Q: What sequence folds into this?
């Protein structure tokens, strides 16, 4: 037990994404998205990184997103399970291509609107507040093939139309919005992050940062629109968080860590402050980047977000001698292994204090409320002889990170809520595996897509139920 108190209105819940949970990838008019083109297996990473110049479905490959855990047909039962845990908030995303199958249509697909209306009404029925991400790593493939995705300025118009449709169609059902999920991942995983494919010989940094500019303008534009449609709407940005520690106190290592943190925070600097940071000019010069900024763009960027949301799984380590031989392949954001920290089965370091550090860093920098919208432990789960999953390792991980959240709150950091990742088992974004499980609820599906999809409560389900009921005071 602990006598520390979270705010009375603290939003406890969990998070999923459409492309990792819904399945039904072509149901009721939905179009193909970027994630639908990323297979499980050896070809996954080259496609995610944009290292192939053309992407097409291959009958010899297995695509986990096509069926996922079939949340599309099971959402009522799944939301009922979340309500049983006591969820106050449920983070999920809208698949852009359910509303606009190609992305460039003039009018939306009504069947897509109807589906999400039913999902949000189901949340409302259980007293759960939806927290909705507009673009969670899924760009309609037609926009990639015809326009080159976010390298093309026309995507600002298409995204604006899509977002406006969402704000109008779901007004009264949704008030918490995120524009782009982990927007900084565009720099590290360009195809999965933003639908970018590269041509031989082109300056990839130029492509990535120009695409980033288009996304930043689009994000600011739809933030303004959300406020115009309903002043009660709250719009946040979303960062793949985690500070870079210097590998040593050598000044060169400290400076490298500062540069890596700046690279990570670049997008949020713009979305939270409303202008490009001073260091961007040198970064662009060093990388040979010349942004095409249109008249009015810089004024649009002044429409800043209401809060800063972020994921936190692990801290990172940086050295002036970082290279492909000494950085971990466990994550697309490269880091030197920290010898002072344990790691998960997938090589992600476990660092609860790093969460407190990250929260203090973000609030010191932006002075906006924070929302921790992803955190959790990917692990192998096994049923025991009684048919139970005793995932004490997950409970221990979450317990220590909740303690760190409370310590940051005590430090003076305002935190709106906590939505641990993959509250129901889903397809891993990094590896495409089902065996890398995060959930409080087990889903019977394996890495090859086989299984009954039956849902089973894990030990952590009942533990988290108790945490929410006690507003974070009972962590035993």
A:
């Amino acid at each position: 037990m602990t006598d520390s108190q979270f705010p009375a209105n603290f939003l406890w819940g969990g998070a999923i994404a459409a492309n990792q949970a819904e399945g039904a990838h072509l149901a009721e008019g939905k179009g193909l998205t970027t994630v639908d083109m990323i297979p499980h297996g050896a070809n996954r990473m080259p496609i995610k990184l944009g290292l192939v110049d053309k992407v097409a479905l291959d009958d010899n490959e297995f695509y986990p997103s096509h069926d996922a855990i079939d949340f599309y047909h099971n959402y009522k039962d799944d939301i009922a399970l979340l309500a049983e845990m006591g969820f106050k908030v449920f983070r999920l995303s809208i698949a852009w291509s359910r509303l606009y199958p190609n992305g460039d249509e003039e009018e939306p697909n009504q069947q897509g609107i109807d589906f999400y209306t039913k999902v949000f009404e189901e949340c409302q029925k259980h007293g759960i507040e939806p927290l909705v991400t507009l673009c969670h790593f899924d760009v309609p493939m037609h926009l990639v093939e015809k326009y080159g995705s976010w390298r093309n300025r026309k995507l600002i118009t298409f995204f604006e139309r899509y977002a406006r449709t969402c704000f109008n169609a779901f007004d009264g059902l949704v008030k918490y919005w995120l524009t782009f999920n982990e927007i900084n991942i565009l720099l590290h995983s360009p195809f999965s992050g933003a639908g970018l494919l590269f041509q031989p010989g082109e300056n990839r940094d130029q492509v990535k940062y120009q695409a980033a500019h288009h996304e930043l303008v689009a994000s600011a534009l739809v933030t303004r629109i959300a406020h115009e449609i309903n002043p009660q709407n709250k719009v946040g940005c979303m960062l793949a968080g985690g500070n870079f520690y210097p590998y040593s106190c050598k000044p060169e290592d400290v400076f490298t860590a500062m540069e890596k943190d700046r690279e990570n925070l670049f997008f949020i600097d713009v979305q939270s402050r409303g202008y490009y940071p001073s260091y961007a000019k040198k970064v662009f010069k060093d990388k040979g980047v010349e942004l095409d900024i249109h008249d009015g763009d810089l004024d649009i960027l002044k429409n800043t977000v209401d809060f800063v949301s972020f994921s936190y799984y692990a801290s990172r380590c940086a050295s002036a001698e970082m290279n492909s031989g000494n950085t971990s392949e466990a994550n697309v954001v490269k880091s030197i292994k920290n010898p002072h920290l344990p790691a998960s089965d997938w090589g992600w370091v476990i660092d609860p204090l790093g969460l407190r550090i990250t929260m203090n860093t973000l609030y010191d920098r932006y002075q906006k409320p924070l929302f921790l919208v992803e955190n959790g432990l990917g692990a192998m789960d096994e049923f025991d002889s009684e048919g139970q999953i005793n995932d004490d390792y997950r409970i221990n991980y979450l317990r220590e990170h909740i303690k760190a959240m409370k310590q940051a709150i005590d430090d003076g950091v305002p935190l709106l809520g906590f939505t641990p990742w993959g509250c129901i088992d889903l397809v891993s974004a990094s590896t495409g595996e089902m065996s890398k499980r995060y959930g409080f609820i087990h889903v019977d599906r394996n890495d090859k897509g086989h299984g009954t999809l039956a849902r089973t409560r894990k030990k952590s389900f009942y533990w988290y139920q108790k945490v929410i009921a006690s507003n974070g005071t009972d962590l035993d």
